[in-house]
Amino acid sequence: MSQITCKYIEPRIIAFLCRAECLGTTESRRRVYYGQCITGKRTNTKHMFATAICAQLTMASTTAEPDSKKSQYFTSRNKRTIIISAVLLIVIFALINFRTHISQFYQQSTSLLTLNLELVTGEIHWHECVPAVDNVDCGRIIVPKDYFNAEVGTASIALARYKAKKFPRRGSVFLNPGGPGGAGTKLPITTGSALAKLIGDDWDLIGFDPRGIGSTRPATRCFSSQSSSTVLFANTVIEQGITVSSIADLSSPLLFDELVEQHRQFLAVKEAHAKLCGEMMGDELRYMGTATVVRDIDFMSKTIEGEDEKINYWGISYGSILGAYLVNMLPHRIGYTVIDGIVDPVSWSNEPSHKWPINWIVDAEKTYKVFLLNCSKAGPLQCPLTEYKDEPLQHLERRFEEFFDAIALKPIPVPFGNRPGVLTSGGARGVLEISLQRPLSWPKAAEIFASAMAGNATELYNLVIRATPLTELDSPDPFISPRLAVTCLDSPRPASPDEFPTAEDLTEQGLKALREVSPHFGLSTSVSEPDGGCQYWPVDGPERFAGPWNATLETKMLIISNTADPITPKSSGLLVNSLMPDSSVIIIQDGPGHCSIFLPSLCTAKLQRGYFAGEMPKNGTVCPVDVATFPNEESDKHVQALSKDDLELLDALKDLEASF
């Protein structure tokens, strides 16, 4: 027994102590430290301690003579005493070397009760979600951290699965909610039943948190705390957006100088952020790119469904980038694929990220005009931005510009918002651009802007400076760092520092967007899409995909674009469709908003559901919307005339919209 005890117990005691001592460090440091610790380079005391424990356990097993009752009594008592003492000594030793605060312990998502360091690639564990959700399992799957180098270890991908209710079950559909930075596990948990109405209840719907995001590990951690993240970005152009003092004269030398000054701050904050990420994360940052996530989907599909089963996928916004990568990197593996709200994958993969927005805002002016027109038709009762019904659009536009120009000169103090501060013109205009993406929120957005114009800007300010949700309190940086960890591995890196974009370069790019594409929102995307600065990013990924984008698929991919999407224009959907003319079909939803789900269309929804059932829509089909942006009696009558099944589907689509 002594040989068995020491052979199997001693290494586990050492592993326990090494794991406990490493908890307060970053992921990269923890791996190096643990490797040194477990191999004995840093563990003389631990080896001696483990040997002593083994000796005590061995003594406990050999103390008594079996034929002596007295000896048996004392042996039993000795065993208990020695074992209890050994356990207490281990705990005391671990606590002495436990070099972290409890908050950091939580952030690393490591438990002293989970001591198995030899994670097996391909292991998948399903369990009840906490809190429990009807018909949803949560889980994790262990995947290779680097699909080209097994020696760097594993990653743990967080999963949530809304289970099929109709049989025979057809398989699994993997989901992505956009971002990058969106946690896919939220989709089955918060809106699984609504998605099942859209995709079909004979599919398992699997949400997963992509690399570096949500509950997947390693997570992107560039800051030690939420407060340190806030301190870096607070009251900078990263948080408040770029302020255009006036769009009345976009050739003004003064405007050029103002924008250069703001972009200098932008670059300085981006450089500091990148250095912090490199210091905190090291090489762990290398594995967050979209190409690696494609490999994860392939690995997960094979593990869950089997080697020969096709991959099925549904994604919106950035999820269209992931979908485009997926079908073009692994065309032979693809089953059903729906992408909605299309980002141009050619630009994404071949241009630096600071040049992306000019392609995104192609339809922003069109969306803005729809907003102003619908507001004008609704009148002051539903849209308080108006003074009377059918007020000319130019009046509303002028009202906005006067407001933006005024607070560009004199920002509004907001002492009692989510955080004391000021509302800037850049922040306010950025919120308007974001509001255009969600047409069902237009009545509320109109109310908030009207209140700010009347002197109460707290609600508008709170849309710029958002309160941190309870679910994100344990995340030092729930949004910006995880996003950049993806975008900076996807976009091409400058060949040398001589090619780094300057503040003047960024200003020229912004003015080009204002003059040639969108005078109102040419420099307003940074509030919702904080990209750029990737020239400072400290690492490159193991793989970067840049095309080609013309794969041939066995089952055509379904593309969905809106006619007036302010951030992912119809032209991007048509581009992907044209690159894959024999392997894709496109549905055009005739309405405003970002992605079809943000202004429900029964036509679009039924075509999607039919697609996942094997019915291919006609390429170029145009679908109307079924919900008014400012509801009135006429729109209410339309809804009331719908069938029971259509009403249920429409309610599901509204639930889906509300969950994002």
UniProtKB/TrEMBL annotation:
Please name the InterPro entries in this protein's record: AB_hydrolase_1, AB_hydrolase_fold, Pept_S33_TAP-like_C, Serine_prot/Carboxylest_S33
Kindly list the GO molecular function terms attached to this UniProt entry.
hydrolase activity
Instruction: Provide the transmembrane region boundaries.
Output: 81-98
The cross-references to SUPFAM superfamilies, in alphabetical order and at most eight, read: alpha/beta-Hydrolases
Which stretches make up the Peptidase S33 tripeptidyl aminopeptidase-like C-terminal domain?
532-623
Entry keyword set: Hydrolase, Membrane, Transmembrane, Transmembrane helix
Under Pfam families, the record lists:
Abhydrolase_1, Abhydrolase_4
Instruction: Indicate the segments forming the AB hydrolase-1 domain, all copies.
Output: 173-362
Q: Which family does it belong to?
A: Belongs to the peptidase S33 family.
The name this protein carries in UniProt is Alpha/beta-hydrolase
Species whose genome carries this gene: Lentinula aciculospora
